[in-house]
Amino acid sequence: MKSIPPDLAWLNLPNLPTPVKVLFSGYLLAIGLGLCMAGLQIMQTHGMADGKPGLSLDDIVYSYYGNRSGSTLESKLNGSMKEMGTPEARLDIIKWVRNGAPETEWELHFKDTFKQYCVQCHGSVPGIPDFSKYEEVKKVATIDEGASIQTLTRSSHIHLFGISFIFFFVGFIFSFAAGIPKWLKISAIAIPFAFLIVDIFSWWLTKWNPNFAWLTLIGGFGYSVAATIMWFISMYQMFILSRNGKIYGNAWEADLK
């Protein structure tokens, strides 16, 4: 094997100094746990949009295009919010909504019902409707047209900024991997960003036409698989491959020539 200058020989995951390995692995472990929690949260929100466990095309359609056979409030009460109140209160609200959610019944009865079961979140958490006010309840008691443009804009920029940072650092750590062909390493680093963009654009396309919902599943699955592969390779090379004592060349040697 060609000799590597001493000042560059450590530039790969197996040969990294222990403090750097601790830094990289700590980040990867925290991010890995965070992504698992994000997946669980998706299953409990979007995954229950159709009232059934598990993420399906119908869940994507209902979340972004809406269930236009009924109101947003009714679809939530039959889906992700189904367990937030008693069955009797849920059916009572649904009947009121289907009757046009008349304001005359709000002060007499439904204001107290929403206060008991809903206002602890829908009244204190920013960014979601305030169910202590009839006007806010009335907005979601109309036909369910899915996510609003305001919601899509907010979610899009949060995901693009936040998840891009995650993929940047995961890709940066993976770029130190040894023995990976250059074309494969470049592809693995680029793929999560490409699928992230597909995922975000699919929300807007599904809002316009429900037939694009499958792009959301492809985008999310694509960047999850690519990031997972980089995660496992990085952890493997830092803590298992490095134990065999083999000295690898600079991870970027071919690019530095």
Describe this structure in words.
- The protein contains 10 helices and no strands.
- By secondary structure, the chain is an all-alpha fold.
- It folds into 2 domains: 13-46 and 147-256, no CATH class; 70-140, no CATH class.
- Helix 1 (18-44) packs antiparallel against helix 9, helix 7 (149-174) runs parallel beside helix 9 and helix 8 (182-208) runs antiparallel to helix 9.
- The radius of gyration is 24 Å and the shape is elongated.
- The model is unreliable at 1-8 (pLDDT under 50).
Task: Summarize this structure as a short list of keywords or feature phrases.
single chain; 257 residues; mainly alpha; 2 domains; 10 helices; 0% strand
* Distance separating the two termini: 16 Å
What structural category arises from helix and sheet content?
mainly alpha
Radius of gyration: 24 Å
The count of domains is 2
- Strand element count: 0
Strand content: under 5%
| Overall spatial form | elongated
Helix count from the secondary structure assignment: 10
Q: Average pLDDT value?
A: 82
Unreliable spans: 1-8
Main sheet properties: none
> What order do the SSEs take from the amino end to the carboxyl end, as H and E?
HHHHHHHHHH
The helix fraction, in percent, is 55-70%
Transmembrane segments: 20-40, 158-180, 186-205, 212-233
Protein name: Elongation factor-1 alpha
Keywords: Membrane, Transmembrane, Transmembrane helix
Short précis:
By secondary structure, the chain is an all-alpha fold. The protein has helices at 18-44, 57-64, 72-77, 87-98, 104-117, 134-140, 149-174, 182-208, 213-239, 253-256. The protein contains ten helices and no strands.
